[in-house]
Amino acid sequence: MTYIEGFIVAVPTANKEAYRKHASGAWPIFAEFGMQRLVEGWGDEVPDGKVTDFKGAVQAKPDETVLFSWCEYPSRKVRDDAGQKMIADPRMHEMGQMPFDGMRMVFGGFAPILDEGPGGKMGYADGYVLAVPTANKEAYREMAGKAAKVFMEHGATRVVEAWSDDVPEGKVTDFQRAVKAKNDEAIVFSWVEWPSKSIRDEGMKKTMEDERMQPDHDKMVFDGMRMIYGGFAPIVDEGEQAQASPRAVA
After folding, report:
1. What is the mean pLDDT of residues 184-194?
2. What's the structural domain count of the chain?
3. Is the pTM of this model over 0.90?
């Protein structure tokens, strides 16, 4: 089973290339320690929300862009061991200061509950973070599985839904605050991969118009008003997706 480490970061827009070089430069070390894929998604269509949004999640400033990023590992153990190795490796310290405010970075570990589609070369991703009542885990998985089929019928290549597993509270920002999670709720970190933005734009339009995607407000298993979402263009996509069985169960 795969394991996901998810991030939301606010980066000064002027530092885009510096950030890309920093992440790409770190990839060989990450891969050496067992990471199988690293994706850095630069904010492209990140709307303001009425209750929550990606910008608020990281207290983004007007001159900053939000990144939605993830790392894929073959297991949590590999991820945990890699984290310790990164802290101790002098090469990481030699890379210098990160080109963003790390105090506002949101991060955590997630176990996939659904991983559908073959993946492949990705040209665009839609990212989502939401809070789901823990008691509704199976209902959410079932709903997400139905939605994944619709996404892929309209051009998506992969849909991943990952359930919070190791999501710490932060001093300034964290996933819980990002979606105003309640004590009885878990965080879901999710994304949809598309071959290109043009395919995504057409496919998303068809998906939203599909009658199978029309919400039944009497049977909603989470509060959609607190879900944060946006479209992201990958500026780093290294490695290959970790192998997982469809609908992998956490």
Report:
1. 98
2. 1
3. yes
